[in-house]
Write a structure and sequence with these properties.
The strands form 2 sheets. Strands 1, 2, 3, 4, 5, 6, 7 and 8 form an 8-stranded mixed β-sheet that branches. The protein has a 5-stranded parallel β-sheet with strand order 10-9-11-12-13, sandwiched between helices. Helix 3 runs antiparallel to helix 7. The two termini are about 40 Å apart. With about 375 residues, the chain is of the alpha/beta class. The chain is elongated and about 75 Å long.
């Protein structure tokens, strides 16, 4: 791995949405303590780093850095959430690492070195980019990195198995072919805060011939799609271009009014909820938050708008949220939710033209 120079770090202000992962070498400290020479320790760690880096690279991934006995990597092509092949590659990259572990451990045994056991965690989300060293190398930061790291370092990660976060699972859940070839078991709910948990899944192949089946099914699906002709392509294009609105307000007449405004002015796909809990369950199952605005009332039963905002942003901090409230608290908003601008707040009752124009502007951001 490259060592970063002492010139420092420069945050670019840019971010991407992508798959990333951590691979930790389990019990490496305990194992290296038993080694009586520096050369053995170097051999042990270099074998780990080089073998993992080679596998990640072969599946389109990039290893960013090693943190002690842990490697951080990401898959740039997964910014396209409609590309089933790149997401299949992420999963198969993890399984290939586990498959090759047996042969690597045989070689380590010949050199009288301890075997490798891995903790592998994968997730999807916003990755903040920075330039390090001489500003020619990329580093990654942000909540997705922190969460995936915590998942990896806790007891929730089982050695020599793959644990994925809920954000990654929701992407995979949009591809029926992948669901047919893998088992996803809800392994545990990771406690983020007292009131907020994050689902984790253990993933296994359904067949020992999983990779061949998946590649065949993916190709077959693509061939079928091409045979359907240009009319299907146009339909799919129109579906993908639909702008989506989620309304959450405990007053049904208010929801009816907003929905009427939106459907009269624009061809939006509008979904409404009077129960914030039902809304959260629906949002958790969305695989792509592009072209989406969530509109929240503040004063609601069970969950108020501020609590709902916090839980939604924990799923994906880039989700666009518009508050509409009868409360006269616009001046205090910046202290309640730091960083939110006035364009994401409206006061009841709303003007139809201002309401629809505001949503149109937010969708274009």
């Amino acid at each position: 791995m490259k060592n970063f120079s002492s010139k420092g770090i420069r945050f670019s202000g840019d971010s991407i949405k992508s798959c990333m992962g951590f691979i930790d070498l389990v019990d490496s400290t305990k194992n290296t303590i038993t080694m009586d020479n520096l050369e053995s320790i170097r051999k042990y760690y270099s074998t780990f780093i080089n073998s993992i880096s080679e596998n990640v690279k072969s599946y389109g991934g990039k290893v960013i850095k090693n943190i002690g006995d842990c490697l951080l990597f990401y898959f740039p092509k997964t910014t396209d959430v409609n590309n089933i092949e790149v997401f299949r590659d992420v999963i198969e990259c993890g399984f290939k690492i586990l498959d090759k572990r047996y042969n690597i451990n045989q070689e380590l045994s010949k050199q009288q070195l301890p075997p490798f056991n891995y903790r592998i965690s994968l997730d999807y989300g916003v990755l903040d980019l920075a330039l390090v060293g001489d500003y020619s190398q990329i580093d990654l930061f942000g909540t997705t990195i922190n969460l995936c790291s915590k998942i990896n370092s806790t007891s929730s990660s089982i050695p020599n198995e793959i644990i994925i976060g809920d954000n990654f699972y929701r992407i995979l859940n949009s591809f029926p072919i992948l669901l047919n070839n893998y088992h996803f078991n809800n392994h545990i709910n990771y406690q983020i805060t007292e009131s907020n948990t994050y689902s984790l899944y253990n993933i296994k192949r359904k067949s020992t011939f999983g990779l061949d089946n998946i590649e065949h099914n993916v190709k077959h699906s693509f061939d079928e799609q091409q045979q359907l002709g240009s009319s299907t392509t146009e339909i799919k294009k129109n579906i993908n271009n639909n702008k989506r609105i989620i309304l959450v307000d405990d007053e049904e007449d208010v929801l009816f009014t907003y929905k009427t405004f939106l459907e009269e002015e624009h061809d939006y796909n509008v979904t409404s909820f009077t129960d914030p809990s039902f809304a959260m369950n629906y949002i958790r199952n969305i695989s792509n938050f592009k072209d989406l605005v969530i509109i929240l009332d503040i004063r609601m039963k069970n969950l108020n708008g501020f609590q709902l905002h916090q839980q939604i942003k924990a799923i994906d901090p880039t989700i666009k949220i518009l508050f509409i409230t009868a409360l006269d608290i616009l001046d205090e908003f910046s202290t309640i939710i730091p960083g939110i601008s006035n364009e994401y707040i409206m006061k009841k009752p709303v003007d139809k033209k201002i309401f629809t124009n505001t949503i149109q502007k937010i969708l274009k951001k």
